[in-house]
Amino acid sequence: MPLPVTHPLADGRTAHSPLVRAYSGERPSRRPVWFMRQAGRSLPEYRALRAGTAMLDACLDPEMASEITLQPVRRHDVDAAIFFSDIVVPLRLAGVDVEIKPGVGPVMGAPVRTAADVAALRDLGPLTPERLAPVTEGVARTVAGLGSTPLIGFAGAPFTLAAYLVEGGPSRDHLAARTLMHADPETWTALTSWTAEVTGAFLRAQVLAGASAAQLFDSWAGSLSLADYTAHVAPASAHALSAIADLDVRRVHFGTGTSELLVAMRDVGADVVGVDHRLPLDEANRRLGGRTPLQGNIDPALLGAPWPVLEAHVRDVVARGQQAPGHVVNLGHGVPPDTDPEVLTRLVGLVHSL
Q1: Side-chain half-sphere exposure of 236, counting CA atoms within 13 A
Q2: In the annotation, is 141 catalytic?
Q3: Which end of the chain is more exposed for a tag (fewer CB within 10 A), N or C?
Q4: What is the mean pLDDT of residues 164-190?
Q5: pTM reported for the whole predicted model
Q6: Does the structure show a pLDDT above 90 at 320?
Q7: Residue 172 catalytic?
Q8: 287 classed as catalytic
Q9: Could you give the CA distance from residue 48 to residue 246 in angstroms, rounded to a whole number?
Q10: Distance (Å, rounded) from C-alpha 241 to C-alpha 255?
């Protein structure tokens, strides 16, 4: 299916942007950089706008979500916006009882651990265009305000969504989820098939509304062995990414603690692999066979270090990224909430100068 004629990739607004070119394995004259969690708690304008509004309510307010998405582009001159959302937004849209509790994270009304629990999710019905309307409207508003700067669509990977559902909330080791995949593989497969459908529909809606790339974020995949990932997780991630396979957009796959999974994560259908701060980019490129564009991987902890320390680290990351076919500079995880915004602006200037 071709992209809509008004899509920024189809009408040329973002087709030749540094980000899209780097995601395509090219070396644009301006080295692209953006940051995961660039929109959010580190910005005073974000805190002022969101005061008194719950997180999920902010994500599902098209005007507010759009403004939050645009804030870091205006402030930092980054080469992409990423749509302001949360991993559990598609669960909320599907009708799951979920809240984001301050200081805790996403909490489910009840965990999903049996075949009957999964059947109840199925009974909620699919993510229809009507349910997705707040997201598509927010994306369209954002794209209209971005001009030639591309928007990246965002979704949590099926395993991460399933882990939240099984655990009932955040977990350090995801023991209940990993137990279920072995103790009741049929129920696990049914659950991850459902989360894959939800994630795929969520990504597709963002792309059709104007996103020029899409990132699948597997927060918790680092808790898995390669064997478990390949057998019990990769099929669902492939299913999710297949939802946008017919659309001409680059697909980025990122996880934390996933150094041993990079090839498997690429092979589910990703065009670009995000690398966290634990693995040097030249080694990531070697593991991926030197044929996959990379994204990453400045250590977020160094954003609070003295500038000469951060600058040396950024230069090293950029030098190691030169080994890959394409490189988009990013953090090895998200922006910490106490980061000085001026440091991020200065960092963007440094990357663009190299």
Answers
A1: 28
A2: no
A3: N
A4: 93
A5: 0.96
A6: yes
A7: no
A8: no
A9: 40
A10: 15
